[in-house]
Here is the input.
Amino acid sequence: PAAPIVLRIGADDGLVLIATQDGLLHALDLATGVEQWAFLPQELLARLAGLRRDEPTTLRSHGLDGPMLLHQHDPDHDGAIDPSAGEHRWLILGLGRGGSGFYALDLALPAEPRLLWTFDPSGGTAEGRPEPVVTRLSIADSGQSAGDWVVLLAGGYDRRFNLPAESTAGAGNRLSVVDAMTGRVLWQAGSEDDAEVTLGLA
Here is the structure.
């Protein structure tokens, strides 16, 4: 899993965000270590029964095993996020070896997380390992306003390349730009035909 993220709120308060292989994102109080909330992606719900049985196995499954990015826009640096003033605090995380999807959470109120969107850049064919990039980007004919925030996501890593002798075409050959608030696809490059490329974007 990704390294824990420390979200500071004021001088002494805050949260520590920890992704785990059981599939949960835990938010712990920075001062006490007491869990404040946890988030479980929908795709990982089916794993819970097997984890509870805890049967011996030689096959390992994965939970939240991808990147995590905390993006804050707080121009006045007061630590209080006011969405009506264009400020934001977003957490974007990928499933990595746990799946192909990405999730965006609104942490403007850290004690009350809100799911903004989910997006699968590869359509389920590649692992959600790429690092998200949050930026401002104008895209012609997208319906975006100048200065709107977007997220860039590469297609992902094709599991077939875990095999040393694998030389066939790979999945994940796509770059997507989505609206940072809604997850709406604004622009994509790449082919849906795996045969047209030999490596995925990760």
